[in-house]
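Dock 5-O-phosphono-D-xylulose; give full complex structure.
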Amino acid sequence: MTTTESRTERGTHREQRERVAALHAELTRNGLVTWTSGNVSERVPGEDLFVIKGSGVLYDELTWEGITVCDLDGTAVDGVKRPSSDTDAHAYVYRHMPEVNGQVHTHSPYATAWAARAEPIPCVLTAMGDEFGGPIPVGPFALIGDDSIGRGIVATLGDSRSPAVLMQNHGVFTIGRSARAAVKAAVMTEDVARTVHLARQLGEPVPIAQADIDSLYARYQNAYGQ
Ligand SMILES: O=C(CO)[C@@H](O)[C@H](O)COP(=O)(O)O
């Protein structure tokens, strides 16, 4: 449960908490969050723990002490901040998707507009084939505060190549092999949500053939970059 406020600060996992605190700046820098909305978490390597933003902490004031260490049941084990409202959701994903080491949640405006309409973003850009391997799917409506969102994420992404899901009426949740990879997926989600929205204003976007999506995805995931 995430309701227990940890009053202890033992300073464990400080390097990781500093790095994850700093990563939150990418959310503001890319215009993905407003005020205190959104959060980043990362699994602690080799331990049944993860670190996550404290609930309601302002981004400008976020330091390593604003990041709380939790176990995989979502219970705070180190830190002075009550962990994010989405802690039980992140914990559920870490328990059920062992390959996932990082998660991000945003209310980035274009992607969340798609979520408000519960409409998947169709794969009509090569950048989508690259990063998402297909459309960005929509997950079910879920209330905030328990593991319902996590259940929706796992159910939706379990049979998708996409590292992003648009939770209906809510916003973007992304997963990755690291918190940084999940942040990248959140940035890319907003970018393609905006471009496909703009394309829609001009006419009907042209779908990419499945074989070409497969080819794009394979190249980008296996051969792109240094
Ligand atoms: O939408 C939600 C809850 O899912 C969050 O984005 C909140 O807006 C921020 O919650 P904290 O992580 O600060 O508790």
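Observed: The pocket of 5-O-phosphono-D-xylulose is lined by residues 36-39, 53, 55-56, 84-86, 105, 144 (CB under 6 Å).
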